[in-house]
Fold IclR family transcriptional regulator.
Amino acid sequence: MEVSGRTGTGSVTSRALRVLEVFSAAEPVLTLTEISRLSQLPLTTAHRLVNELAEWGALERSPDGGYRIGLRLWEVAALAPRGLGLRETALPYLSDLARVTGENVQLAVREELSVVYVERLAGRGSVPVLTRVGGRFALTPTGVGRVLLAHAPAEVQESVLAQPPARYTERTECDAGRLRQALAEVRRTGVAVCERQVTMDSVSVAAPVHGTGAEVVAAVSVVAHVDAVEAHTLVPLVQVAASGISRSLGAPSPAPPARSRR
Amino acid sequence: MEVSGRTGTGSVTSRALRVLEVFSAAEPVLTLTEISRLSQLPLTTAHRLVNELAEWGALERSPDGGYRIGLRLWEVAALAPRGLGLRETALPYLSDLARVTGENVQLAVREELSVVYVERLAGRGSVPVLTRVGGRFALTPTGVGRVLLAHAPAEVQESVLAQPPARYTERTECDAGRLRQALAEVRRTGVAVCERQVTMDSVSVAAPVHGTGAEVVAAVSVVAHVDAVEAHTLVPLVQVAASGISRSLGAPSPAPPARSRR
């Protein structure tokens, strides 16, 4: 049973995962030939792995004959505590925030050196946002990203600050020193305000969500049109929503506002 | 590279998937010993597979030292067109339906012989529902399930009707003949109304969502307190929401109401 040995076995698991990895939001349906090319696996290997993944339901045939990520994988992945689990807890608070503000509301976590969006409620008539549930984005130019980075381990902060971020607009902050200052400000005030960092017409206001050990496990933001709102009026709303989610997650107590600290 | 051969290779992929499969909503965090026991894999095999899955991010360590489904798997699974893809398209319509009715709103697809819930918006003060996003449920006692089953291939219908469903309440319909009639009624009227089938205090009203080829790809329902609403008043609301989602998915035209058929 185990004759293929450690290397062979590891190789098979990682190749199966590599097949799953080639699907993207831009290319959610792929042919076998495309899977083989994108995963850099020989056609026969790709064929066998695709069949095995399809048999279990990790992949499924699409009506046009290609392959797509299967519902069975989504069912298992729905158990990820940092994905749907977090989102289930947070949704009522996010809905309230969306209803009260009429703006875009986002919930995100950090995965390695990126933001991953766990939920996004689009405001009607609000500013368009570039994000997608399950999608990644840079940490430094977004409100949620700055909150998550401000509370990340020092080595994560250094890795992020060591690479100049992409310049989305002429205002995108790319200076490591000023970003470091901004992160300190986020820790001090308990809120991140990012103006015109991703698009010239948007502002995001974000606050941290705390877990059972008071650690920062997620961030909530409102993204609005920069000319349509005073960002400071959004701050308490975002903080109240973040505190509600934290409490539902079992955080020991709401994050104390800066001025009550000694 | 390929010396382990078809059987050995298939075995490894399926064992890796078997490791993912042992996680559940009831047990979202498991120790290595538990994974080994639940997957019926030897501890050394489980250990190796868990390490490989964790390295890629399909599993991650939880703060208490156990393993849980990882965010990376959730990111990939977010690409499942029948999961988050469908849900993204449907969410604005579901939110409208929830706001207008104040009741529970559900979006579901069929996977084999079960309903899988893709979205659920809980109504404040509405009747409690037993479902969970990513969770499965029986087809015959639920509104969404009856819609999906009514439009499923004949062999799926026969497989479902051949097994007597669980009796959730004294009213749960378990007779294959009457269920067959109910499914015909769903096809004729374009709507399913299920009273007191899962709990004695609930009624669900469901309508089909159509895909690009007019095939039924999902179902939408409102679940309300049976004494608080007249179910027939919910019918046009659910149908309008379902039609909106169908149109957004590229369905050729709204499903024609029964009375316009010849």
Chain A touches chain B through 69 residues (CB under 8 Å).
